[in-house]
Amino acid sequence: MAQLIDGKAVAARVRAEVKSEVARLQAERGLIPGLAVVRVGDDPASQVYVAGKKKAAEEVGFRSWEHHRDSSISQDELLALVHRLNEDPAVHGILVQLPLPRHLDADAILSSVRPEKDVDGFHPLNAGSLLLGRPATRACTPLGVMRLLEEVGCEPAGKNAVVVGRSNIVGKPMALMLLQRNATVTLCHSKSDLPAEVSRADILVVAVGVRELIKGAWVKPGAVVIDVGMNRKEDGKLVGDVEFTAAAERASFITPVPGGVGPMTIAMLIRNTLEAAMRGVTPPSH
Ligand SMILES: NC(=O)C1=CN([C@@H]2O[C@H](COP(=O)(O)OP(=O)(O)OC[C@H]3O[C@@H](n4cnc5c(N)ncnc54)[C@H](OP(=O)(O)O)[C@@H]3O)[C@@H](O)[C@H]2O)C=CC1
Ligand SMILES: Nc1nc(=O)c2c([nH]1)NC[C@@H]1CN(c3ccc(C(=O)N[C@@H](CCC(=O)O)C(=O)O)cc3)C=[N+]21
């Protein structure tokens, strides 16, 4: 029977570390980290996540702002908002909540955030730096997963790590971070033979968004299973992408949903914002 990985508890510890750093920064340098979150439209899930981010930011002593805009906002208006936040010295981190309405060009918006303020790690410069193995802001969800692996003493070097899902925000950066730590990485997607690939995984990270896609019977005995998926059932409860009960019978460690990766994503966002504030911001080039 697997041991549960308590992401909620680890996340609380990360936030507590940040909170004491914030107190020190304020006392020594008079500096208060600031996080600006941009939310467009009325997606109920986004509303919940953004509220969670704001609450965490305030709890650790950051300044935080939520800029909520109607879904009818134009590309130019949204770019102008990001530009204003780019220029605002009180703002050290900017997060544009995804998904954006279809009429907006999300790539162009994410690319318009100053890389130094891109606490999501989604700017091409930060994403590219991960690919090249250079220091840069890393995407929060995979960063949180790496921290959870560390917490349970799971050393990726030499292990078979299988990542299911190849999105730019989770799957791809996850595969790169595991590769950087010398795992042998397989990145799966909708054309992969999942039962065959999953059954070889010593470390399995699943980020698809299909309820209980990964069957417990596919899990290699002793594997560490990280479930990033978040799917809402008809009764309103959240479930992951992994058949939890059956997988827990074979895994050595497994994350629950909720209470696993989700809280870590927010904790890493908070840490990325602290780091952005500590680095400071170079003045605009014009
Ligand atoms: N806990 C957290 O902090 C976070 C949770 N999430 C959750 O993680 C999940 C994934 O999110 P995100 O990465 O944005 O997802 P995307 O929708 O962007 O990508 C989904 C990926 O899953 C693959 N996929 C879809 N169906 C299958 C299938 N049947 N078999 C194998 N692969 C499949 C797709 O493959 P292909 O490329 O071939 O189409 C794609 O690569 C969602 O449930 C989301 O809510 C996301 C971010 C943070
Ligand atoms: N620019 C941007 N950055 C993101 O980081 C980003 C985003 N857009 N869009 C959506 C996804 C999703 N995401 C989550 C954050 C917290 C939880 C979380 O805290 N989950 C709780 C449960 C919350 C609940 O009960 O609904 C848990 O798993 O325990 C989940 C998912 C960040 N995302």
UniProtKB/TrEMBL annotation:
CDD domains: NAD_bind_m-THF_DH_Cyclohyd. It catalyses: (6R)-5,10-methylene-5,6,7,8-tetrahydrofolate + NADP(+) = (6R)-5,10-methenyltetrahydrofolate + NADPH; (6R)-5,10-methenyltetrahydrofolate + H2O = (6R)-10-formyltetrahydrofolate + H(+). Its EC number is 1.5.1.5, 3.5.4.9. Pfam families: THF_DHG_CYH, THF_DHG_CYH_C. One of its GO terms (molecular function) is methylenetetrahydrofolate dehydrogenase (NADP+) activity. Keywords: Amino-acid biosynthesis, Histidine biosynthesis, Hydrolase, Methionine biosynthesis, Multifunctional enzyme, NADP, One-carbon metabolism, Oxidoreductase, Purine biosynthesis. PROSITE patterns: THF_DHG_CYH_1 (PS00766), THF_DHG_CYH_2 (PS00767). One of its GO terms (biological process) is methionine biosynthetic process. Pathway: One-carbon metabolism; tetrahydrofolate interconversion. Residues 139-279 form the Tetrahydrofolate dehydrogenase/cyclohydrolase NAD(P)-binding domain. Transmembrane segments: none annotated. NADP(+) binds at residues 165-167. GO terms for cellular component: cytosol. Belongs to the tetrahydrofolate dehydrogenase/cyclohydrolase family. PANTHER family: C-1-TETRAHYDROFOLATE SYNTHASE, CYTOPLASMIC, C-1-TETRAHYDROFOLATE SYNTHASE, CYTOPLASMIC-RELATED. Catalyzes the oxidation of 5,10-methylenetetrahydrofolate to 5,10-methenyltetrahydrofolate and then the hydrolysis of 5,10-methenyltetrahydrofolate to 10-formyltetrahydrofolate. Homodimer. This is Bifunctional protein FolD. The gene is folD.
